Amino acid sequence: MTMANTLAKCLSTRHSQFDTVRHPYSLSSMATAHAAHIPGDRLAKTVLLEDDSGYVAAVIPSTHHLKLAEIREQTGRNLSLAHEDGVREVFRDCDHGAIPPVAMAYGTQTWLDDSLLAHADVYFEAGDHQELVHMSTDQFMELMADAKRGHFAHRMM
């Protein structure tokens, strides 16, 4: 599989400047960072949440844990981790577990953790388990302009 069509269209529409990084097949965000030889705190991990009102995507560094209580407080919603069926429903053109952070392009409210913006560049899944999108943090912030921002992730020990 190559880059997800929805992501490719979003990057094109927003005139994003980026390159792609191929890496050996990997199933977890930490394994992806290792396989791609990139720092894990620069790899965005997208976690899909849900409640009775629908879905919310939380975008955090792969080296961090999502603090569910904190995102619940910041969103004012009783969110929990989405079921696999929900992930497949929202991110139809992506492999399971390889979802890009631009959930807005998939019609889903998105929250971005500020700790992801601490470095000069960002990497994120392109929709499969073998390719990452790489761009400057400035480009990433432009791409994620419609996302709400907050602090709801903490570094793993």
Automatic annotation (TrEMBL):
Q: One MF term in GO for this entry?
A: aminoacyl-tRNA deacylase activity
Domain YbaK/aminoacyl-tRNA synthetase-associated: start-end pairs: 30-142
Which residue windows are transmembrane per the record?
Answer: none
Record's InterPro entries? YbaK/aa-tRNA-synt-asso_dom_sf, YbaK/aa-tRNA-synth-assoc-dom
Q: Which domain of life does this protein belong to?
A: Bacteria
- Which CDD domains does its entry note? YbaK_like
Q: What is this protein called?
A: Deacylase
Q: Which organism is it from?
A: Cupriavidus oxalaticus
